[in-house]
Amino acid sequence: MSQKPSVGRIVHFHDHSPDAGVAIRAYAAIVVGVRDDVVDLFVMWPDNFGIRPAVREGDAATHGTWSWPPHVPPTKET
Question: Where are the domains of the chain?
Answer without folding.
Answer: 10-67
